[in-house]
Amino acid sequence: MRMIATLLNPTHGEAYVCGKSIYTDPAEIRRLVGFMPDFFGVYDDMTVIEYLEFFAATYRIDADARRRICEEKLELVDMAFKRDAMVNQLSRGQTQRIGLARVLLHEPQVLLLDEPASGLDPRARIEIRTLLKRLGEMNKTVVVSSHILPELADVCTRVGMIEKGHLIVDGHVEEVMQKARERLVLHVRVLEGDGDPKSSAAAADRAAGLIEQADEVDTVTIERGTILATLVPDVMDYTALPTLLIEHGFRIELFREEDVNLETAFMQLTKGLVQ
After folding, report:
1. Structure pTM?
2. Which of 145, 64, 156, 66 is nearest to 106 (CA)?
3. 49 shares its domain with 102
4. Which residues span the domain enclosing 193?
5. Total structural domains in the chain?
6. DSSP code of 232?
7. By three-state DSSP, how is residue 95 classified?
């Protein structure tokens, strides 16, 4: 992200932002890009509005328009009520919002956000996600680097996964999810007799052996009384399995597909390699 923002020279390769090379057009790219790192410093002796006006001046925004633009960005990130607060007294979530307001001052076409929800409480993370959606609706390209994968599916349209420096997955969120679902995993819990825990454990063993014999099932394991049945690749029809269990006298307490989110997709599509 620092290379794309022209803050770090690459060792090799090429990158383009809006058709402009990071080698030959760094000044132009900086006008097009707003980069917010994971952690950034703030000035102790400035209020929020002074902080934004200072950066508006560095972006060479006309003095007559500076205050108006800063006020507009504060409204956009829902921080107008903190305009006169000292920037070093803001919470982590409020600081992230001010950081977003700062990188939006010069109306960039591309936003590079490194872990924008890192260290935030649940409410602040939801608010940041809502703000990112709003920025996307403003026809801005927003590139987010994050390890909080399940939350990204609600915000992103495309996802890329990098392992050992290589981009191994790149596509629309739905495509990546579908790729991770090539092998369905079923979660099954059964009851037998009076539902006593001991008899239920024995029932799970017998039911697992029965499920394992089905042609559409590849492997079966049991975790804390729940049967995990992995289907044969590309098999999506498992409607015969509940009937099979019922015909053999089992009562079905749970029968569902394993949920697939970006986190489980990441675990299935990567190998855990590091540099």
Report:
1. 0.73
2. 66
3. yes
4. 182-259
5. 2
6. P
7. helix
